[in-house]
Amino acid sequence: MTYGGLAVVALAVALVVALVVARVRGLGARWWAATALTGVVLTGLTVVFDSLMIAADLFRYDEAALLGVRLWLTPVEDLAWPVVAALLLPALWALGDGAERAGADA
């Protein structure tokens, strides 16, 4: 499986979980805005720090398994993981009692 294929599967699972939890818990626009902002910040940090680590030759990718699109030095497939984290972690927290303690908006 390519990095892109794995990223698509992980993104799909995270999105489905986030949508279901948001519906079940009644999470509103404020939760989605905070989740989106978190995803943007994490994605930006991933581009910067992945690029620095790649430039320092700390790790390499199998070029045959990449799509070839890069932001700075970061393969676009790597950007799936901060988005997955931004969707999945708050959703799982809200699924517990986190949303009730934080006063989830409707």
From TrEMBL:
InterPro entries, sorted: Lycopene_cyclase_dom
Q: Which Pfam families match?
A: Lycopene_cyc
* Membrane topology according to the record: Multi-pass membrane protein
In terms of superkingdom, the source organism counts as: Bacteria
The GO cellular component terms are:
membrane
Q: In which pathway does it act?
A: Carotenoid biosynthesis
Keyword Isomerase attached: yes
Would the keyword DNA-binding be found if you checked this record's keyword annotation?
no
Tell me one GO biological process term: carotenoid biosynthetic process
Transmembrane regions: 6-24, 31-59, 79-96
UniProt GO MF annotations: intramolecular lyase activity; lycopene beta cyclase activity
Localization (cell): Membrane
| Alphabetically ordered keywords of this record | Carotenoid biosynthesis, Isomerase, Membrane, Transmembrane, Transmembrane helix
Give start and end of each Lycopene cyclase domain: 8-89
Q: What is this protein called?
A: Lycopene cyclase domain-containing protein
